[in-house]
Amino acid sequence: MRVLGIDPGIAIVGFGFIDKQGHKLVPVQYGSIQTESTTDSAVRLQEIYEALVHLIDKYKPDAMAIEKLFFNKNVTTALTVGQARGVLMLAAVQKGIPIAEYTPLQVKQAIVGYGKAEKKQVQEMVRMFLKLAAVPKPDDVADALAIAICHAHSAGLQQKLNGVGKQ
């Protein structure tokens, strides 16, 4: 199973593709989609959408996991992140890719085992899970990989739970 993890944003969208091979998680590709703050917001959203469509076409994920929008004190930031989430989810839906959403608390719980873990703890666990030499930068990329790992673990458990009643 190939999972695409997304940490949504308007300036930086973190992405990470991982393959789940049995109990093993293998990084395929990861990085960020970045837009210029001086560019019109509608154009930035189009750039994000087109970049993700290109990545989906190239790496062909089986599922996309994206961070749920949580309440932010800065309403403007929350709105723009929400718009970015919308175009990211649209790209996946148009390509027929199922989407799972996870809160930051769920991701931390899945990665570290503690829902209030520090960002550095999550990043180090991502590095260890994927056997990377260093923590991916910027932080958005490590967050996207954490979301992908969270889904890889959750999807396997969900499949087992769904299979329990079907015997």
Distance between the termini: 23 Å
Percent of residues in helices: 40-55%
Which strand order does the major sheet show?
Answer: 3-2-1-4-5
User: How large is the radius of gyration?
Assistant: 16 Å
Mean pLDDT: 91
Number of H- or I-type helical stretches: 5
Output the structural class. alpha/beta
Largest sheet report: 5 strands, mixed
Number of strands: 5
Give the SSE string. EEEHEHEHHH
* Strand residues, percent: 15-25%
Oligomeric state of the chains present here = single chain
State the shape: globular
Low-confidence stretches: none
Describe the structure.
The protein has helices at 41-59, 75-94, 104-112, 119-129, 139-164, and strands at residues 2-7, 12-21, 24-34, 63-67, 99-102. The protein has 167 residues and is of the alpha/beta class. Strands 3-2-1-4-5 form a five-stranded mixed sheet. The longest helix has 26 residues, at 139-164. The radius of gyration is 16 Å and the shape is globular. 37% of the residues are buried.
Short description:
The chain is built from 5 helices and 5 strands, in the order βββαβαβααα. 51% of the residues lie in helices and 22% in strands.
Q: Key features?
A:
167 residues; alpha/beta; five-stranded mixed β-sheet; 5 strands; 51% helix; 22% strand; globular
Note the topology:
Layout: E1 2-7, E2 12-21, E3 24-34, H1 41-59, E4 63-67, H2 75-94, E5 99-102, H3 104-112, H4 119-129, H5 139-164
Parallel strand pairs: 1-4, 4-5
Antiparallel strand pairs: 1-2, 2-3
